[in-house]
Structure formats: C-alpha cells, structure tokens
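Hi, here's the filled form for the chain we discussed.

Project: internal
Contact: R.S.
Residues: 106
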Amino acid sequence: MTDALAAVPAILGFVPADAVGMVALTEDGTLAFVARTDEQRAASVEQFRIAVPQSNVAMVIWIIVGTGPIAAAGLDQIEQSQRELDTLGVRRVRTLVTSSLEADAE
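And the returned structure, exactly as it came back:
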C-alpha cells in the first residue's frame, strides 16, 4: 500500500497536506480517478455522483493525510462519504492514514 500512497502526489501534481483523498478504481483495479479535499472543506459525494458511474468505479481506497484532529475529522468525513458510495455499489478496499506524503515520510 505504500506504492499507492507514493503515487498520489504524482497523480495530483502536488503533495496534499491535511487532506482526505479517494483513489477510485474499476472492478479490475484500473485507476479511474483520484480526488482530494481539504479536511476542513469536506466534499460531498454528490460531487462524484456523475464521475463514479461514468468511470465505472467499483471500489475506493481512502487516504487521510494528517494526524490528531485532522485524522479524526477525516475518518468522520470518510464514514459519511462511504455510506453514500455504498448506495452506488462502490466498496471500500482500505483506509490509509499517513502524517505526510512527502518523500521519506512514514
């Protein structure tokens, strides 16, 4: 899973911090898209209602970048978003939490 984390900055074009990311995958594991929001400005799954079906998203990997209150708020955001994704038939593969996506971070 560290490979998945390491790829996020390259895919987004920047290194996210204090953020929640969603790596959306098709049934065969092909990358559909990557989305991120600032932890403080949670994105509604409504924003993905068009992208998810058009991209044939079947599963997601959630990523939280941050610690302490950031991570706690991110987990809450993910739980709410995943309930919506469940109604679209999109399953959660894993939730990953990291303090940073900078090179050499743990």
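Let me know if anything looks off before we file it.
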